[in-house]
Inverse folding.
């Protein structure tokens, strides 16, 4: 049973809902560690103090803010607790907004909101109201000594919470969004829309998987058996020069290939496994 990341109350007008937050998703990856190439011993990152010239125990670690002159303002854990905002215990819903107004770019981490036994009816009321109105609750919550603005929204018969990036955290990329002096012909737009239509289908999360992680597992298994794995051939992609010709060719070849994506992935998986075993 996973431990909750946060316990407290959702404040909905004069209604309080005792809840717990659980991480909704975590990466599932094979972790490759850094080893010493000579003896194959795992390398570690010690807490080393260059001033005292020794390894420091974790109980000696405190937090500090660095000043411009290189000195630090030391902040003790108890001092941080004293200034913790109300949102460290109560998640006030500040307002409601249409789901369509919130871009996924603003989403940070995701959590499942689970009601305590005494709050199940109020939880269900809030869930039903958000579903019927197609609204998202905007709240404040403090997690890991940081206050977040968060979105509460219906998901799979329950409430999900997404912490939000603030406006100053959304980065800029050079040249992003610039469309100067680029003109699209109607024929190009029509063919591109036809290609999108051909590739369109209902979204199913379980259809998608991490092929690299699967290949990495097979590679590790092959290495255990002392075998080598041949490199997977990669198709050469030529730069697009004639947009119309590229779109037409894509339409010609995509339909058949798109109808059997799962089989193609399975075939790739079997081919890689066969190479690892042979």
């Amino acid at each position: 049973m996973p431990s909750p990341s946060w316990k407290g109350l959702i404040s909905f007008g004069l209604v309080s809902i005792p809840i717990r937050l659980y991480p909704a998703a975590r990466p599932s990856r094979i972790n490759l560690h850094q080893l010493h190439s000579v003896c194959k011993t795992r390398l570690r990152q010690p807490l080393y103090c260059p001033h005292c010239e020794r390894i420091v125990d974790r109980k000696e670690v405190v937090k500090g803010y660095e000043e411009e002159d290189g000195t630090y303002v030391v902040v003790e854990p108890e001092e941080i607790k004293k200034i913790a905002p109300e949102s460290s215990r109560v998640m006030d819903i500040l307002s409601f907004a249409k789901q369509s107004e919130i871009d996924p770019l603003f989403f940070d981490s995701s959590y499942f909101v689970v009601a305590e036994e005494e709050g199940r009816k109020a939880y269900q009321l809030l869930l039903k109201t958000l579903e019927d109105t197609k609204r998202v609750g905007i709240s404040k919550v403090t997690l890991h000594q940081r206050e977040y603005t968060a979105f509460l929204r219906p998901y799979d018969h329950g409430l999900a919470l997404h912490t939000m990036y603030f406006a100053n955290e959304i980065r800029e990329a050079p040249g992003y969004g610039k469309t100067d002096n680029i003109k699209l012909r109607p024929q190009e737009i029509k063919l591109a829309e036809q290609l999108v239509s051909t590739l369109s289908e209902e979204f199913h999360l379980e259809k998608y998987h991490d092929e690299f992680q699967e290949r990495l597992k097979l590679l590790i298994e092959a290495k255990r058996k002392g075998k080598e794995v041949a490199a997977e051939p990669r198709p050469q992609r030529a730069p697009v020069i004639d947009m119309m010709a590229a779109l037409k060719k894509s339409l010609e070849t995509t339909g058949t290939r798109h109808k059997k994506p799962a089989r193609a992935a399975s075939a790739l998986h079997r081919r890689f496994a066969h190479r690892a075993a042979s």
User: Anything to note?
Assistant: The chain has a mean pLDDT of 81.
